[in-house]
Amino acid sequence: MAESLNSPADSSPSFFRGHWEGWKGYWAEKFAFLDDYGRFVKREKPIPSWSDSDVEEFIASDPVNGPTLKTAREAVKIAATGSIIGAISTAGIAWKYSRSPHGAALSLGAGAVFGWTFGQEFANHLLQLYRLDTMAAQVKFLDWWVKKNESR
């Protein structure tokens, strides 16, 4: 008798279950980039930190992914500059007109986020990052770094 109650539910999923599975597949596709970094993040022993000289060594050793990684690092510098400019300018304007410490602090945080976003978009167009696969270059660097540290 228990089998007869479960069999109709098992044979055709409900509307909500089908809808949920569709959304789950959609978001799994959107966040698929996390699978690339999973093997570096979910480790028993964390990856040791690296220095700028290690990154420069990788850039010199890999003719395909090295220039891409170098360009991505330049884009981060532009985005950080945008973040600083956005944070200081919005906090300054908020302080000038309101003299409210909490308003200036909120403006500082929001300006930093907005400035980073605008700086990243500016760098994306300036350095033409849309033509490069920066994620692949970063994953190749992490692979190289793990292999280098395992051989030590």
From TrEMBL:
An annotated GO cellular component: respiratory chain complex II (succinate dehydrogenase)
PANTHER family: SUCCINATE DEHYDROGENASE SUBUNIT 6, MITOCHONDRIAL (PTHR36708:SF1)
Protein name per the record: Succinate dehydrogenase subunit 6, mitochondrial
Organism: Protea cynaroides
Lineage of origin: Eukaryota, Viridiplantae, Streptophyta, Embryophyta, Tracheophyta
